Amino acid sequence: MPSKRGQKRKTKDLDRDESNNDDPLAPPNRSTWDGWVEMESEPAFFNVMLNEMGAKGEIYDMDDEYLLTLPHPVHALIFLFRYRENDTEQQEEGKCPQAVWFANQTPDYACATFALLNIVNNIPGLEVGDELRRFKDFTKDMDPISRGDAIDQFDFVKHIHNSFASESDMLQAEMVVSNKAAAFRKKQAIAKGVATKAAKKAKLADVDTEASIETASKAAATRSMPRTKKPMPKKSPKESSPGEDDEDDDYKNPAKRNTKSHSSQDEKPTTSRRSGRAPKPPKDVPPPVEDEEPDEGFHFVAYMPINGHVWKLDGLDRFPQDMGPYEDDDFGMGWMRLAQPLLRGRMLQYAESEIQFNCMALVHDPIEADRQALASNVKALKTVGAKLSEICDEWWELEGGETRKDVITGMAPSLGLTLAEVEDKIVEPGLMTRIKEADDVLQLLKLRQEVVGQQACLRASVRDVVEASKSDAEKARHRRHDYGSFLRGWLGALADQGTLSELLS
Question: What keywords tag this UniProt record (predicted)?
C-alpha cells in the first residue's frame, strides 16, 4: 500500500542494476532492487515469508464459521482492505508505549512485511531466527519512524518480500515512484514561482509606499515655507493699450481655462514607455497543483493482544491505537471477543461501498505441539515393547502384537520426526505408571494397542500440517518463477520462424 503521510515518507529514485547495462527498458534485478512491491493476500505466501524469516507461526484464512476451529492460541488478526484516502486518521498527539514494538510504514507497498514485523516483535516468547532477533535488539530503543526506515534498509526481509514480485510488479512500482517524484518536483517549482511573484509584488508595493511618503513629505515641507509675492512688471504705454487688454481678456484667458478644464475631464492618465509600445498584459501564474487522487491499493492492518489490551497496529498511523482492555479465558481467546466486533464493523463499512477485504489469523505453529505429542507416543510404544521383551520373546508373533505399516515406532523423516527427539521425550507419568504396574503379556498388549490407536490421530495432524506446508511452498515456487522470460523467449522463437505473424493473422 502506498504510504500517505508526506512528512514521513521518502521518495527515492530506484537505481538500475549494473547487469541491466543501463537499459531503461530492461527489467530490474530482483536480488538488488531497492524498492517494494504490493503483496497478494494469500496465506500461503505469508506462511512462506514467516518460515523464511525464521518465525514460528502459521497464517490461516478465516471467516466466522472457521474461527472456532483455529488452533490456539491466536496471536493476531490481519485485516486486508482496499485503502481509501479518507481512511486517514489524525493522530497529532500521543506516543508509542514502551511495551509495544511499532514501526511506521515509510516505504511504499511494504505494508505486508510491516504488518508481520509489528506482530512477531510483540509476541512474547516467540521462537524467531537470528536475523529477526538481532533486528529487534537493534531497534528496541528507536521511535516508530526510525524503525520504519530500519526496515526499509533491512535487506534480509526486503529480499524475502520481493521474491514474490514479477517483472511487471517491479516496473509498475518504479513507475509509481517516478511519477510521484516528478509530481513533487513540479509542485515545488510552481510553489516557488508563486512565492517569487508574491515577493516581487511585495517589493514593488514597498517602493511605491516609500515614494508616496517621500512625495508627501516634500509637499508638506513646501507648504510650511513662507511665501513671498513677486513684483509684477510694469508695462509701458507703448507695449499695450486699454483696448488690447480688453480684447485679450475676452478671447485668450477663457480659452486657456477651458483647455485645462477639458483636459482634466476627458483625458485619462497613461503610463509612459520609452519604446512607445503598449504594455503587455500580466502573466497569469497557474495555481498550485492539487495532489492527484492516488490509486486505491490493498493495505494490511494488524490487531493483537498486548499486556491485557487489544492494539491496532497500522503502519500508516502515527502511533499504535489502544482499542481497550479485555478479560482473558482458559483458551487465550478473550481478546477476540473485543476484536471481532471491531473487525465486523469495518467489514460492514467497506461492504456498503463494495470495497474488497479479507481477514487472516496468525496462530501458534501447530506442527510443533503435534510433533512433540507424536514423539511422546512413539517413546511410549518403545517403552511398552521393551517391557514386553522382558516378559515374552517374540511377543510380536502373538495376536494383538502385530504392527501395521503406518504405525511409527522410531524416526519418521517424512514427518520431520528424528530419533533424537523420540529418545529425549518423557512418557506421560500416568501412562508410565500403568506400564510399570502391568506384569502380564495380555495387559501389555492391550495397553500397546491403546497407544497405537492414539497415534493415528497424531500422525494425521502432523501429516496434514506437513502437506499444507508443502502446498504453500509449491504455491510460492510457482509465484516466484519468472514466466515472463519464458514467454518472451517463446514468442521470440515463434517470430524468428515466421509463425507468430501467421497466428496473429
Answer: Hydrolase, Protease, Thiol protease, Ubl conjugation pathway
